[in-house]
Design a protein that fits this description.
This protein is mostly helical. It has helices spanning 2-18, 27-43, 47-67, 70-96, 99-110, 118-134, 162-192, 196-201, 205-218, 228-244.
Length: 264
């Protein structure tokens, strides 16, 4: 669940930062949705989605600094600072009103680097076993769910790392095909959505790309890729790429009255 909430947080945050004047909803509703999703992400107590959103936002900020003119980059960074301050103030107030919940959140943050306790230690041990076992059949793998032999309850336990599971199950052949498709989608999206024309024509393309990257990163620590929402997010990204492809602008014109937040 945290992986999918992280997708929503990343998409909404990217829309607020890049296109504050071209939001699909009113500003009040958008900020309410962003706050609600951030609260939901916090209450998942899942370290993977937390780190995935943080890494993706850092990559987005880096892209902004590199690609946008200095004035626009400063404006985006100022918006980010304002959003973070607002979320921090509201979140702190909500936690202070519920001390038990605040204690749980603080303890969870304090344990971000504690890999020797809780489920993290079990997952790391499983991944090490899967990695060593994969070396016995590197090209074609061992077949679906073969890693269950390393778990106490093979019927219900999952690997919590889809890419490693795919490598162990399908070998380098299946792993390579899957990674090639994902990499092609991500690279094509970053190329299509990074131009000034595409950002004006398809303002939600880059936010969806950022959200999908967050889901991919988060899925390295949980079974997010096995859920339907991951593949729906990929389908949305591919649709955005098709609509933003060269030559599609005439078929999908943008209303002249729309205001785009990032001016080039």
């Amino acid at each position: 669940m945290g992986t999918y909430v992280g997708f929503s947080v990343t998409v909404l945050l990217a829309m607020v930062l890049l296109f504050p004047g071209d939001l699909p909803f009113s500003k009040k509703r958008t900020y309410l949705m962003l706050g609600a999703n951030c609260g939901g992400l916090l209450l998942t107590f899942a370290r993977g989605p937390w780190l995935a959103v943080g890494i993706t936002v850092a990559l987005l900020v880096t892209w902004v600094v590199i690609r946008l003119p200095l004035r626009n980059a400063v404006a985006v960074l100022a918006n980010l600072g304002l959003v973070l301050v607002l979320l921090t103030v509201v979140g702190t107030g909500a936690l202070l009103s519920r001390p038990p919940l605040a204690g749980m959140v603080v303890n969870r943050f304090a344990g971000l680097s504690a890999l020797e306790v809780g489920t993290a230690a079990d997952r790391i041990q499983l991944w090490q076993n899967m990695w060593e076992d994969w070396k016995q059949a590197p090209w074609l793998g061992h077949g679906a769910h073969d890693y269950a032999k390393f778990r106490n309850d093979p019927a219900t336990q999952i690997s919590e790392n889809f890419l490693l599971e795919l490598l162990h199950s399908a070998g380098l052949v299946g792993f390579g095909v899957f990674c090639f498709v994902i990499a092609k989608i991500l690279i094509l999206g970053s190329w299509l959505f990074s131009s000034a024309e595409s950002m004006h024509r398809m303002p939600w393309g880059l936010p969806i790309l950022a959200g999908f990257v967050a889901m991919c990163v988060s899925s390295l620590t949980n079974p997010g890729m096995t859920g339907g929402f991951y593949w729906v997010g990929m389908a949305l990204l591919v649709c955005a790429q098709q609509l933003c492809a060269p030559g599609m602008g005439r078929a999908f014109p943008q209303p002249s009255a729309r205001k785009v937040g990032v001016h080039w």
